[in-house]
Design a protein that fits this description.
Blueprint lengths: L23 H12 L6 H7 L12 H22 L5 H12 L1 H10 L12 H14 L15 H17 L4 H8 L9 H6 L3 H11 L4 E8 L2 E8 L2 E8 L2 H19 L2 H8 L11 H12 L5 E8 L6 E10 L2 E6 L6 H16 L6
Antiparallel strand pairs: 1-2, 2-3, 3-6, 4-5, 5-6
Helix pairs in contact: 2-7, 3-4, 3-7, 5-7, 7-8, 10-11, 11-14, 13-14
């Protein structure tokens, strides 16, 4: 982005939405309108909207430090009152979901706070722009990670603005909560967490209950991380992302779905046609192709991941990738003596992951 002066803000929105970048006085006024609150000391809000790369004024770092604690206390107090019978463990989970980087960053996107921050680090523009676009493609609220990992700077903005309100209200947390409450909507509730449990934690809890040992392994494929989940040494599912943490989250989600289906063979036979002797779906490649066509996804992309054994007894392990709106789904199949069978094994694994999931 070309700047006309040192004072500019994030231009992290598609080109067709481009608009004149506000100066700091205008930014302060617009954020005050958003909060429906007029600051007594407007310098506090100016500071809250200033990144550390902008050296001509104090940055939001001190306010962000305070805001992290203040928001945690405000959410804790709210949850303590809202859930009088909930134990400490569940309260902690709900609080974490409401003050996580993912949650706060989406608040900054929803209210377009990123447009008002002064900075001199153009690399932030691209990171935030990618995240804004990814959030707009989400089908619903993502509690534990979407397609792209949330830039911390977006969460910092929400924390610093909240702290600015807190200080301007003479350190009155109740007054601050009344002002920022609407900004934080939608609050993540216990019901939401039941619908979207933390995938990695839930996976380990599920496998521990079933007496299985979980292992999540990573490797790089170009500019993407691939995370693979193994239970008792057996491959369960994989997913890929440009961020290692997101790859792990999505792999855990698919693994949970796959493990659920493995406990219900009758359901799999009814909905996915016949299973062969290896508990894989016969004709899986054709069925997966039909699903992609129906969902208007690109055709599945198959690759040989490994070749093992001697030349006259070679076996193959294939993978399959599907590009969907929210990213790329990736799984590997089992070892087979023919490439076509290895591809069908990978397609079968993908169908298990898709079956009855939010992707179908």
């Amino acid at each position: 982005m070309q700047s006309r002066a040192a004072d500019y803000s994030f231009s992290c929105y598609p080109a067709e939405e481009s608009e004149e970048i506000p100066d700091i006085a205008t930014s302060v006024r617009l954020v005050e309108n958003l909060l429906n609150y007029s600051f007594t000391n407007k310098k506090l809000l100016e500071e809250a909207l200033t990144h550390s790369s902008y050296t001509e004024s104090a940055s939001y770092q001190r306010l962000e430090f305070l805001g992290d604690s203040v928001l945690g206390l405000a959410i804790s107090s709210y949850l303590y009152i809202a859930y009088p019978d909930l134990d400490q463990g569940k309260l902690s989970l709900i609080r974490s979901a409401n003050v996580s980087t993912e949650k706060l960053a989406r608040i900054a996107v929803r209210h377009q706070l990123y447009k008002y921050v002064r900075h001199n680090a153009t690399i932030l523009d691209e990171r935030v722009r990618e995240f804004v676009i990814a959030v707009r493609q989400e089908e619903g609220p993502e509690v534990y990670g979407g397609l792209i990992k949330a830039p911390k700077v977006l969460a910092d903005i929400v924390e610093s603005v909240s702290a600015a309100v807190y200080v301007d209200c003479n350190f009155n947390s109740n007054a601050m909560w009344m002002i920022i409450r609407d900004l934080l909507e939608p609050i993540v509730t216990l019901d939401v967490l039941k619908q979207q449990p933390q995938p990695v934690t839930t996976l380990f809890e599920r496998c521990q209950k079933d007496g299985k040992q979980v292992d999540i392994r990573y490797w790089r494929n170009g500019d993407r991380y691939i995370a693979s989940v193994y239970a008792d040494g057996q491959f369960v599912a994989s997913a890929s992302s440009e961020q290692k943490e997101n790859a792990k989250l999505h792999a855990a989600k698919i693994a949970l779905q796959r493990l659920s289906y493995e406990s219900s063979d009758i359901k799999m036979v009814d909905t996915c046609s016949q299973l062969n002797g290896d508990n894989e779906i016969e004709g899986a490649k054709h069925k997966l192709h039909e699903i992609c066509a129906k969902k208007k996804w690109p055709k599945p992309n198959y690759k040989i991941q490994e070749e093992v054994g001697l030349a006259h007894k070679k076996k193959y392990i294939c993978s399959v990738e599907i590009e969907i709106t929210k990213g790329v789904l990736f799984v590997k199949g089992n070892e087979k003596s023919r490439v076509k069978e290895a591809e069908n094994s990978a397609a079968s694994a993908m169908l298990f992951g898709l079956q009855d999931s939010k992707y179908l």
